Amino acid sequence: MNLGILTSGNLGKDTLEKILSEYKVSFVLTDSKSDGVIALCEEHNIPCFIGNPRNGKGFAFIKERKVDVIASINYLFLIEADIIGHASKLTFNIHGSLLPKYRGRTPHVWAIINNEKETGITAHLIDEGCDTGAILHQIVIPITENDTGNDLLNKYKENYFGLVQNVLNKIELDKLEPQEQDSNLATYFGVRRPTDGHINWNWQKERIINWVRAQASPYPGAFSYLNGNKITIDKVVPVEQGFHFETENGTILETEPNLIIKTPNGALKVEQSREEVEVKNGDKLT
């Protein structure tokens, strides 16, 4: 089967490498920051379009290169009808959630923030909506209480190629049975930026724990400010520590050996942070 691959990032590079061991790839579309994907294409002499494919630019690159299937795998860009319709059999995407839940960007991070106990990856047909196409196959992936956003992405990495194989095998056997999504059950979450990680100490401690682990290193991180200095926090855990209910949330109750911080329903110990700042009991994180 002759494939076209749209892919980005380390997750895309890892999956592309596995695809190349078993399938013929006629072209790749990627973005300028995906050095691993670009290098892999150069190594295998695969025509590679780098940049935003919209407004006909990507299609102009692929229109003379015929393929049976186009697979979008962790691709940075939305694609338009010209590319969607180019494959002779179908064009599909792998999305990092159990659609129709968590349409949109960084769904695995949002799933942790929202205290989900499981997530997954979905292969679906691409239409001109955002993650709205009919579902081809799904793999359920559990979320443990200690999983970070990066841990979950590594779980995805272990399953992406198997999902691609599942779809391609069904195409070859003519056994695909696309299932339309129930839009009444759909949820949508937007793109996250580094500036979105600000911790609100008025949240319940459980939400703060999830907020921190979802964005832990190597992600930009959850953060707070202490006397005007930014402190990025990668791990907090609940501890038994007394406090008065009138004490402001975010107040530092202890400094040694770790910071212990008050929230509305309990105290949290900072086990990992990235910056060293001078603190004393009674200081307040904002």
Brief rundown of the structure:
The chain has helices at residues 9-20, 35-44, 57-62, 81-84, 107-113, 149-172, 205-214, and strands at 2-7, 24-30, 48-50, 69-73, 90-95, 103-104, 118-125, 135-142, 188-189, 222-226, 229-239, 252-254, 260-263, 266-273. With 286 residues, it is α/β, with parallel strands linked by helices. It has two domains: 2-189, Formyl transferase, N-terminal domain (Rossmann fold, 3-Layer(aba) Sandwich); 195-273, Methionyl-tRNA Fmet Formyltransferase, Chain A, domain 2 (Roll).
Can you describe this structure?
This protein has helices at 9-20, 35-44, 57-62, 81-84, 107-113, 149-172, 205-214, and strands spanning 2-7, 24-30, 48-50, 69-73, 90-95, 103-104, 118-125, 135-142, 188-189, 222-226, 229-239, 252-254, 260-263, 266-273. It is α/β, with parallel strands linked by helices and 286 residues long. A 7-stranded mixed sheet has the order 3-2-1-4-5-7-8. Helix 5 runs antiparallel to helix 7 (205-214). It is elongated and about 70 Å long.
Number of helices: 7
Radius of gyration, in Å, reads 22 Å
Q: For the residues shown, what is the average pLDDT? A: 96
Number-wise, the strands total 14
Class by alpha and beta content:
alpha/beta
The CATH topology annotation of the largest domain reads as: Rossmann fold
CATH homologous superfamily descriptor of the largest domain: Formyl transferase, N-terminal domain
Q: What is the CATH top level name of the largest domain?
A: Alpha Beta
Q: Could you estimate the helical fraction of the residues in percent?
A: 25-40%
Give the DSSP E fraction (strand runs of 2 or more residues): 25-35%
CATH architecture of the largest domain: 3-Layer(aba) Sandwich
User: Which stretches are low in confidence, meaning pLDDT under 50 for 5 or more residues running?
Assistant: none
Task: Give the total of domains.
Answer: 2
| Strand order, largest beta sheet | 3-2-1-4-5-7-8
**3D shape:** elongated
One letter per element, helices H and strands E, the order comes to EHEHEHEHEEHEEHEHEEEEE
Distance between the termini: 56 Å
